[in-house]
Write a structure and sequence with these properties.
By secondary structure, the protein is an alpha/beta fold. It has ten helices and eight strands. Bound molecules: the ligand Cc1ncc(COP(=O)(O)OP(=O)(O)O)c(N)n1, 4-methyl-5-hydroxyethylthiazole phosphate and magnesium ion. It is an enzyme of class 2 (transferase).
């Protein structure tokens, strides 16, 4: 079957409300949280099983397959964070890597036309990621976050605005400390979407939180067009 890289316009739509979660991010059953988030309207999901309390080995793969099936039931692409071997083993829809993970060009070689997301914190990293085959960029942390202990210093909208000022049009998602209260700020900076963990995974109702986040970004997204 002839495959091809996902077109940017299609990816922009997927990046609107990009939920990221691992079992370590919630006290609830992660399958329940993901199903609720899907019902609430998330547009993309990333499996990020890492850090204290995260599953490993067979348990991690079993959870990945279970969450991927929920996504497949609703036509939501399933992205795996960091673990390229796992992504290939379960035929995930894509991967996300950062500056301290496997080399981007090597990952592109390994995954073929699957979706490839790359974290970038400077214009140089943005340009290198594009050169090496990134389909989208994750830029942040925009705001302070307690979810990723080794996160870099919050940068606000500075880099997103700088990228757009350079007329670099790659799909971008903001990440880091994003909530319903500050989501529109991220879109107004020129991002195509918001990606987040605790605003949904820690919510009393992941479904209602997802719906509210989507409501908060619809107008600024329309204004970016
Ligand atoms: C969409 C998105 N953006 C950024 C990240 C962070 O990736 P990375 O810098 O590799 O850090 P870890 O998430 O691996 O701790 C992401 N995962 N997703
Ligand atoms: C994975 C990641 N990368 C930069 S900040 C972050 C954590 C985002 O979690 P939250 O949305 O709970 O701040
Ligand atoms: Mg990583």
């Amino acid at each position: 079957m002839l495959e091809m890289r996902i077109p940017s316009h299609q990816l922009r739509d997927l990046l609107k409300l990009y939920f990221i979660m691992g079992s370590q991010n919630t006290d609830k059953d992660p399958r329940f949280v993901l199903e609720e988030a899907i019902q609430g309207g998330i547009t993309l999901f990333q499996f990020r099983e890492k850090g204290e309390g995260a599953k490993t080995g067979g348990e991690k793969e079993e959870l990945a397959r279970s969450l991927m099936q929920l996504c497949r039931n609703h036509g939501i692409p399933f992205i795996v964070n960091d673990d390229i071997d796992l992504a290939i083993a379960i035929d995930a829809d894509g991967v996300h890597v950062g500056q301290d993970d496997e080399d981007v060009a090597a990952v592109r070689e390994r995954i073929g036309d699957k979706i490839l997301g790359v974290s970038a914190h400077t214009l140089k990293e943005v340009e290198e990621a594009i050169e090496d085959g990134a389909d989208y960029l994750g830029i942040g942390p925009i705001f302070p976050t307690g979810t990723k202990p080794d996160a870099k210093k919050p940068q606000g909208d500075t880099l997103i605005r700088a990228v757009r000022k350079e007329k670099i049009d790659i799909p971008i998602v903001g990440i880091g400390g994003i909530t319903a209260e500050n989501a529109s700020f991220v879109i107004q900076s020129g991002a195509d979407g918001i990606s987040l963990i605790s605003a949904i995974s820690q919510a009393a109702s992941p479904k209602e939180s997802s719906k509210q986040l989507l409501e908060r970004i619809m107008v600024p997204l329309a204004q970016n067009k």
